[in-house]
Amino acid sequence: MTARPPIESAAFGACPVPASRYDVVVLGHGSGGRLSRDLFESVFSPLLGADRALALEDQATLPFPAEGRLAVTTDAFVVHPLEFPGGDVGSLAVHGTVNDLAVGGARPLYLTASFILEEGLPLSTLARIVASMKRAADAVPVRVVAGDTKVVDRGKGDGLFVTTTGVGFVPANVALSATLARPGDAVVVSGTLGDHGIAILAARKGIELDTRLESDSQPLFALCQEVLRASRNVRCLRDPTRGGLSSALNEIAAASSVGVRLFEEKLPLRAEVRGACELLGFDPLYVANEGKVVAVVPREDAEAVVLAMRRTPAGTDAAVVGEIVEGHPGVVTLRSVVGGERVVALLAGEQLPRIC
Amino acid sequence: MKYLDEYRNGDAAKRLADAIAREASRHHVVMEICGGQTHSIVRYGLDEMLPETVELVHGPGCPVCVTPLEAIDRAHAIARRDDVVFCSFGDMLRVPGSETDLLRLKSEGADVRIVYSPLDALRVAQENPAREVVFFAIGFETTAPPNAMAVSLAARRGIRNFSVLVSHVLVPPAIDAILSAPDNRVRGFLGPGHVCTVTGLSEYEPLASGHRTPIVVSGFEPVDLLEGVLRVVRQLERGQGTVENQYGRSVRPAGNEAAQALVTDVFEVRDQKWRGIGAIPRSGLGLREKYTAQDAERKFDVGALRTNEPAECISGEILRGVKKPWDCAAFGKRCTPERPLGATMVSSEGACAAYFAYGRTEKRRRLPLAEAPA
Amino acid sequence: MCLAVPGRLVEVSMDGDVRMGKVSFGGVSRGVCLECVPAAVPGDYVLVHVGFALSVIDEAEANRVFAMLAELDPGALEEATS
């Protein structure tokens, strides 16, 4: 954060000073007056692109297809640092929201984005992040149609928080659910595990690992569509974010009352993620991802699904990693490279680096 | 990864397990000392690969588990102070003291920071000259040289705002205490491979010969641990009790002399209390007088500490291999990794935490082994 | 206790009077203190615990265990695979 700009003696909330006077967020940017308007024009308006006229209303009124169902999701993004190898909180927000829709079989249509800005956040940082969001949204494509900005006192906000809502359209013939997994089904992942979590951790003070590893944050709509074309009976899709693959599979195991068995030698892992996990004592099954899909599909469709994933840029390392079993319902297990089997329990809290 | 993957080879592990099954003609109780070895055994299901004749029990080699409650409470009292930046290894964050833990203190505003290395804590001190930086220096003999280095550098470089809260424990006295206890069932040990990388093997010879107990110093990967068990079983079958070195790729008989010199300069042996076990004479390390300026215990007066350990906890018996986690009435119910009652549940290396995490809720619960899909 | 991981020493430098090295673990690297392994040179594999190298991995010893495995009863392997 840069030093405080000169204090204005005007009454709070009535700042007459133009935005260009400041290079950081100040409380006045949140008070709904000219500073707020200037901030919107210079930083946020480009995000809405052609939809900027919608922002002049209090709500966006939009068309929606007649057939099919509405998918809605909401999410908050609080990553630190704000900008990390492979992305930033803005692109993360777009990808995360779009992916929550995509794994429901939905085509993403609209996004909203709310920004909580901490006083002192450099405007150049904010502009970079918003531009990154625009690029991310255009790449899907998805329209950002509404948003909001608030400013909090220095010390109350970790730079920038982004909250989103995503709206999508699910065609009538698509019905995915975590309750549909059946014994015999295959568990497929779209690529290497743990990239995001390790990329973020490596940058953190006190850890400081030197690596070229980047977050895998990316939109997965195209990949999900390929999967749904490759198999008519996909049971469910999930994007394993916090808590890693373990959390996603534990949810499915519980929802469907089935067991899940993973095979350690089949888990796709980058050498960097393996190395970092060994060094810190982490289990990659618990490390966050931001650009991966886990799919539960009928066994006979598994090969076709893997091939379909591998045809997309997001799925080059797709692989079958496990199976749904009848035994131990609600429990996920891992058969180790050595042959023994152990339970993969839901993580209690955050994984912490250990010396032991 | 080189020097890791080869020792996780399933075929090699199976052959070793088969050899153990062939050669163990009667019941043997073997203890692995090190928490990291416990973790590996449970994670890879190695004890379930062993025949019924060989029983593995888990030892007190988890420094997080055995750090005495007084030290934890003192750490919390120091971390609470406004003028202190409290640095710690990640393992210690969730360890409950009599009232709270470091993670909770952090959420209440204490400046608590996780570091991977003691040198990171020293750097925090250099970067924050106006604050007092305290590092929680815990561990066995393996961590003593790194912790010693931080102290020595602080003194050499005149970094006055850095101090350490020491709680170091030593393995050989613990082995002696275990073997000397009247209810001891342990007949052979897998010795601590990384501790011995620093200390060498000499302190283990009198233990082996004095108690007629084989000690095979072993590594941490499946092949290391199974070879270690095989060699212990072979000695037990022949009635032998000597020290062997399975982990020769890292352990030299004399250990690491440069590391030992670092430790001798900074620390001296003292009596030490072990959480769950009690006091063991000359089983800990304290700072030498010349490093008083780096001693957080002297620097910060936290007043009288009243410690309060839950009565239900049977950690002591678990740490000595006398009981297993499922023998405890509170295991998995009133005592879980999220709300640990005592030593062996507090760290992921503790036997109770490892058993809980890997689903060992009852005796030898076997999950059917399966072939990988084609 | 004692999570320690083998890594390859890539380069050596001095931080004041302290010998430091960059060690690679499968693609991630970290600064490691080499004061306890004065004989270590780039190319060596070292065992690292909390940012300190505590030993240089002995290649010959590392291979020993596999030679031992070959001596284990070969008949057992046949039984197991029949």
Break the fold down into its secondary structure elements and pairings.
The complex is a heterotrimer of chains A (356), B (374) and C (82).
Chain A: H1 34-48, E1 69-77, E2 83-84, E3 87-88, H2 89-102, E4 107-118, H3 123-139, E5 143-152, E6 160-170, E7 186-189, H4 195-202, H5 221-230, E8 236-238, H6 244-256, E9 259-263, H7 271-280, E10 294-297, H8 302-310, E11 319-325, E12 332-335, E13 341-343
Parallel strand pairs in A: 4-5, 9-12
Antiparallel strand pairs in A: 1-6, 2-3, 4-6, 7-10, 7-11, 8-10, 9-11, 12-13
Chain B: H1 10-23, E1 28-34, H2 35-44, H3 46-49, E2 54-61, H4 63-66, H5 69-79, E3 84-88, H6 102-107, E4 111-114, H7 118-127, E5 132-139, H8 144-156, E6 162-169, H9 171-180, E7 188-192, H10 193-199, H11 205-211, E8 215-218, H12 222-237, E9 243-245, H13 257-266, E10 267-274, E11 278-287, H14 296-299, H15 315-319, H16 343-346, H17 351-357
Parallel strand pairs in B: 1-2, 1-7, 3-4, 3-5, 5-6, 7-8, 8-9
Antiparallel strand pairs in B: 6-11, 10-11
Chain C: E1 5-15, E2 18-25, E3 28-33, E4 45-49, E5 52-56, H1 59-71, H2 74-81
In short:
The complex is a heterotrimer of chains A (356), B (374) and C (82). Chain B is α/β, with parallel strands linked by helices and 374 residues long.
Output the helix-strand order of chain C.
EEEEEHH
Strand order of the largest sheet of chain C: 3-2-1-4-5
Share in β-strands of chain A: 15-25%
Helix percent of chain C reads 25-40%
Query: Could you say which structural class the secondary elements and strand pairing of chain C correspond to?
Result: alpha+beta
Please give the alpha-carbon distance between the first and last residues of chain A.
37 Å
Number of E-state strands of chain A: 13
**Sheet with the most strands of chain A?**
7 strands, mixed
What is the overall number of helices of chain A?
A: 8
Structural class of chain A: alpha+beta
Overall pLDDT metric of chain C: 88
Identify the most extensive interface between protein chains. Answer: B-C, 55 and 40 residues
Give the SSE order of chain A as H and E letters: HEEEHEHEEEHHEHEHEHEEE
Helix content of chain A: 25-40%
**Mind telling me the C-alpha Rg of chain A?**
22 Å
Low-confidence stretches of chain A: 1-19
- Overall shape of chain A: it is globular
Major sheet description of chain C = 5 strands, antiparallel
Which stretches of chain C of 5+ consecutive residues score pLDDT under 50?
76-82
Overall mean pLDDT of chain A stands at 89
How many angstroms does the end-to-end distance of chain C come to?
40 Å
